[in-house]
């Protein structure tokens, strides 16, 4: 028979797992709202999308900056984890690269609002930027290497350089309805293909 301490431990784990799932659902909801309404969207809208009360959001994230930073980190992790998953999915390496870049562009659209909360002179900005580079550049590099090894793209493309170029294409994407950053990113990615059209 289990003692009371063991019973307490077994009931605590599911609660922690539920709390983590709820927090991730909340971050997913916040990210979706930020894309459509910006980082200044009302907390009640985020709570409604996540199916929780506003108090739950404030319990996890006391300030809007806390929420935005958590969304940023959550999306970096999702983007980082997607790379290996796409390579293992059975898609060609080039198709995996294309899909991953689509996710990266989605991330950049959400990330744009971070500037409203963190200015470049804020130490938190540098920390997040370093985290972004450390997590995502190696993933992009692995996708590029796999596509190059398969003969689908030119070799020698640097992950940081490509990501920086994509980022520059996405600047101001939300400010001008005549500017379609996604289409330009698609053209850039198509340009990675080998010259023989493969």
Automatic annotation (TrEMBL):
Residue spans binding DNA: 42-61
PANTHER family attached to this UniProt entry: HTH-TYPE TRANSCRIPTIONAL REGULATOR BETI, HTH-TYPE TRANSCRIPTIONAL REGULATOR RUTR
The keyword Cell division is assigned to this record: no
Keywords noted in UniProt: DNA-binding, Transcription, Transcription regulation
Organism taxonomic ancestry: Bacteria, Bacillati, Actinomycetota, Actinomycetes, Streptosporangiales
Renumbered residue ranges of the record's region Disordered: 1-20
Ranges of compositional bias, category Polar residues: 1-10
Protein name in UniProt: TetR/AcrR family transcriptional regulator
Entry keyword Phosphoprotein: no
InterPro entries reported in the protein's UniProt record: Homeodomain-like_sf (IPR009057), HTH-type_TetR-like_transc_reg (IPR050109), HTH_TetR (IPR001647), Tet_transcr_reg_TetR-rel_C_sf (IPR036271), TetR_SbtR-like_C (IPR049445)
Domain HTH tetR-type: 20-79
């Amino acid at each position: 028979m289990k003692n009371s301490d063991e019973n307490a431990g077994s009931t605590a784990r599911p609660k922690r797992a539920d709390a983590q799932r709820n927090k991730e659902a909340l971050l997913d909801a916040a990210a979706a709202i930020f894309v459509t309404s910006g980082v200044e969207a009302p907390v009640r809208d985020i709570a409604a999308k996540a199916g929780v009360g506003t108090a739950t959001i404030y319990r996890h994230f006391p300030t809007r900056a806390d929420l935005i930073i958590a969304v940023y980190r959550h999306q970096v992790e999702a983007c980082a984890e997607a790379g290996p998953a796409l390579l293992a999915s059975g898609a060609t390496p080039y198709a995996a690269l294309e899909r991953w870049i689509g996710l990266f562009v989605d991330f950049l659209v959400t990330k744009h609002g971070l500037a409203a909360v963190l200015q470049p002179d804020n130490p938190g900005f540098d920390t997040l930027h370093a985290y972004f580079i450390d997590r995502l550049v190696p993933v992009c590099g692995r996708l590029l290497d796999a596509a190059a090894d398969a003969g689908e793209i030119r070799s020698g493309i640097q992950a940081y350089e490509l990501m920086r170029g994509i980022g520059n294409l996405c600047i101001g994407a939300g400010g001008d309805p005549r500017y379609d950053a996604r289409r330009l990113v698609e053209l850039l990615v198509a340009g990675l293909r080998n010259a023989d059209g493969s």
